Amino acid sequence: MSDRAIARRYASALYAEASASDSIDRVDEDVELVSRTVSDSRDLQLLFASPIVSTTRKEAVIRRLFKSHVSETVLAFLLLVNRKRREPMVEVILESYRSLRLEQQGIVEAKARVAVAMTDDEIEEFRRSMVKAVGSDIQLEVEEDADLIGGIVVKIGDQVYDGSLKRQLANLSRVLQGDSLNAN
After folding, report:
1. Could you tell me the CA-to-CA distances from 145 to 112, 115, 118 in Å, in that order?
2. Which residues fall within 8 angstroms of residue 1, CB to CB, at 6 or more apart?
3. pTM for this entry
4. pLDDT at 182
5. pLDDT tens track for 54-102
6. CA dist list (Å): 125 to 43, 55, 130, 138
């Protein structure tokens, strides 16, 4: 089973538990807190990834870091992930949970890479045009990537729409190389 499928199963289990305990909003907040904590701490990422550190030691760290900051549901979930030795996947699992929740709310995640920074107004205008095109609300994340030279690359789910100048130049180069090969 792929890591994504495993992450989705764990995310679904967390959602089911949150729903059963009527604590979905609190779990959503806790997932954000844990996600930020893990992504901001290289030491914590290394700890979770390490096969050398025992599950008992990892459990102690999880309890120390999160016990007084997250709900019992999320704490129990993190301990379960640790016991099942899936702690190296915790970031992927939490991201999968976020995606699941957005999906349930009818919101589609989109990521855009742009060559030049966009203003907040430009981002909002672009988001609105995407909403019209997709037919669903969009949660848009935009990041600057100077390597694109110009244009934009948008990823919605598994689909990638590449309108970058870099891609267009690469296509043109392939066409020209193909023509020069045919000319000889």
Report:
1. 10, 5, 12
2. none
3. 0.72
4. 57
5. 999 999 999 999 999 999 999 999 999 999 999 999 999 999 999 899 8
6. 39, 48, 9, 12
pLDDT tens digits along 104-116? 888 888 899 998 8
Location of structure tokens 């379960």: 80
Which pairs with CB-CB distance under 8 Å and at least 24 residues apart come from 65-72? Answer: 65/37, 66/34, 66/37, 69/30, 69/33, 70/30, 70/33, 70/34, 71/23, 71/26, 71/27, 71/30
Closest to 113 (Cα-Cα) out of 160, 78, 67, 72: 160
| Extended beta strands in the chain, E state | 107-114, 137-144, 151-156, 159-164
The fold of the 3-103 domain, in CATH, is Peroxidase; domain 1 (1.10.520)
- Which pair of structure tokens corresponds to residue 62? 């999880």
**Can you read off the two tokens belonging to residue 38?**
């893990």
- The H-or-E segment that residue 59 falls in is helix 55-66
Token pair in block for residue 97: 């949970």
% of residues, the chain, pLDDT over 90: 64
Q: How far is Cα 118 from Cα 130, in angstroms, rounded to an integer?
A: 15
